[in-house]
């Protein structure tokens, strides 16, 4: 499968959807990839099942707060240099590039690197969405070490982190990224084709393209894109729960770029002014949504904020007072809901004082 | 020349003197070295002139605020692991270990590493004293790159910084050190024997031993150690200026561990309560000493605070309200006073709004 110019808008929109607020502005992600495709480069997607077991697969990402990523764009050549460094450290050539997250620019940067290096991009990722920290991946959860983490800036500075565990890798890499100006290009979790097949969330790049296309098709047909999305996820195999959780407007916004993240919370009023507001907490990504004491959804389930007319995904740094939005919740695949996975990205990790309950059970108990 | 147990007290005291407040507690430095020597290990010093031009010389240091170093001791095995990593990166074996600074534990840690690895320790350093930041070395000033900087903690975490310049190496390594708990073992400025001969401050380890011995000899003979120190530096070849700048007690102390450093200032009252107080500003090391508008000494000249009876050096983290002290100023060798060197560690670098004036010209103008 090839990722061509005509699929780019849908892909970027879908990646922003899966980004659940994080992963950077899809407009930026689209631009950097468009530049390569318009210049004649090609992006080939490879299904994880088609990888050779011994292939070296190298995930690449742009690390940083989304509030910084809109001012400092992802740098393709720096990311390529990071891949080259991993190859040098391991003494092997990469056979494929992979995203670590399916959200925002981190879905598109691997495609840019694949185009520049003439390598296929694996149609899979380690988060099935976007998450704020490097250890929050199925790779880490199911045993692929994050280190060596190669961190590059566009000035030629390079840092290699070899940590005893992935939480420490995140802890060390984050400050390096902050000192590099709040964003850096990284490679990490270099792995075998076998691990890429068995320890990733598969087909999330094609899923992003599908989500983007569902939204644009509904718009073209003057259908309701929210109904289209619910239908799309319900028809998936296996089916995924998808429902509108709130229809309202941004009434209050507290957003701070601190500790290397965009952290804060958001209050939404009902569109007709009635009832209690919804509070959404974020650390780069939208992590929990509650109305009063009632928690409607938490990570790892997707909490997406979309324009209430066009269903265009809105990112953390794109939030503005008065925006009219719908919040939708989407369940995640079983591989992301195991006890091991919830220990890494369940609600308690993000300071929510309750155990994880699948979104479909919250919405339709019993 | 061998660094033996009987020389250890003098060496540690002299290293604390050259540390000008920084470089960590000499007691800690002495203990870690004593442990090796008592266990049968030996430390051989090598004069820089005796190095082979092609030898690989590896400087090692403990990075961190002195306020942290008294709680978390330097770790010999982690420093050895950092040397091994540099050897791996360069594909060569180290022929000798070298201090980057002659102050405190950073004078003794290289001796510990030399003992553990059975390698000689070069009788020279890159600062001729202690300075707070990694780029503040004659190595950097005269063209030896600081990178790769290998940073190790005692848990097995490792970070390698390859920066485009040494200020950036310091900027990146400092936060890594902070995240490693405020101290880390590092190797940096790997260099040839030729560079070690021509781009270091020579014979600063033997100088530390001499300074320590001058103080202990004066005590044993019931002579004034301050007179002895002045005489010792005056008789050096070339002669070095040394004078008591102030005789007083600690009247006020502002000390904060922040940005990875111990930063603050100190007010000293005259011992008889008369006259204006002296203000000494520090960032790990004592960097400037003034009375009112009159600046008495600035970096790179040495500003040492010693117990007013015993002349025992007092470190930044050892400062206490009410201590009775004498402040002495000592000139530094010409290699540390060139325009290139003053651009790196002259007073303006530390926020003092004036050009460098050699201490002997301030004290005896015209």
- Enumerate how many helices of chain A there are, as a single number: 12
Q: Largest interface, per-chain counts? A: A-B, 18 and 18 residues
The neighbouring-strand order within the major sheet of chain A is: 16-15-14-13-12-18-17
Terminal Cα span of chain A: 42 Å
Round the Cα radius of gyration of chain A to an integer and report it. 19 Å
- Cα shape of chain A: globular
Global mean pLDDT of chain A: 95
CATH superfamily (homologous) name of the largest domain in chain A: CV3147-like domain
CATH-derived topology of the largest domain in chain A: CV3147-like fold
SSE run of chain A: EHHEEHHEHEEHEEHEEHEHHEEEEEEEHH
- Strand-residue proportion of chain A: 25-35%
Oligomeric state of shown chains: homodimer
- Going by CATH, the architecture of the largest domain in chain A would be 3-Layer(aba) Sandwich
């Amino acid at each position: 499968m090839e990722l061509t110019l005509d699929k780019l808008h849908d892909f970027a929109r879908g990646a922003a959807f899966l980004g659940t607020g994080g992963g950077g502005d899809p407009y930026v992600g689209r631009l950097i990839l468009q530049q390569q495709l318009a210049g004649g480069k090609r992006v080939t997607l490879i299904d994880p099942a088609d990888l050779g077991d011994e292939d070296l697969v190298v995930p690449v990402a742009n690390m940083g707060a989304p509030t910084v990523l809109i001012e400092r764009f992802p740098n393709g050549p720096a990311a390529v240099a990071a891949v080259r460094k991993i190859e040098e450290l391991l003494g092997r050539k990469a056979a494929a590039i992979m995203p670590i997250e399916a959200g925002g620019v981190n879905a598109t940067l691997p495609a840019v690197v694949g185009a520049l290096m003439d390598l296929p991009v694996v149609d899979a990722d380690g988060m099935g969405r976007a998450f704020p920290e490097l250890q929050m991946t199925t790779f880490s959860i199911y045993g692929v070490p994050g280190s060596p983490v190669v961190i590059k800036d566009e000035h030629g500075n390079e840092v290699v982190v070899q940590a005893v565990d992935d939480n420490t890798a995140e802890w060390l890499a984050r400050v390096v990224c902050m000192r590099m100006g709040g964003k850096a290009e990284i490679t990490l979790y270099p792995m075998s084709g076998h691990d890429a097949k068995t320890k990733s969330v598969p087909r999330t790049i094609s899923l992003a393209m599908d989500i983007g296309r569902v939204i644009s098709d509904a718009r073209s047909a003057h259908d309701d894109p929210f109904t289209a999305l619910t239908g799309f996820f319900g028809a998936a195999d296996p089916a995924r729960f998808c429902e509108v959780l709130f229809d309202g407007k941004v009434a209050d916004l507290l957003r701070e770029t601190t500790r290397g993240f965009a952290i804060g919370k958001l209050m939404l009023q009902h569109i007709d002014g009635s009832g209690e507001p919804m509070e959404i907490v974020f650390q780069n990504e939208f992590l929990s949504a509650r109305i009063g004491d009632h928690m409607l959804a938490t990570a790892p389930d997707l909490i997406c904020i979309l324009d209430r007319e066009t269903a265009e995904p809105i990112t953390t740094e794109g939030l503005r007072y008065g925006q009219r939005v719908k919040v939708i919740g989407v369940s995640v695949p079983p591989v992301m809901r195991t006890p091991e996975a919830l220990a890494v990205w369940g609600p308690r990790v993000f300071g929510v004082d309750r155990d994880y309950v699948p979104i479909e059970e919250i919405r339709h108990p019993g």
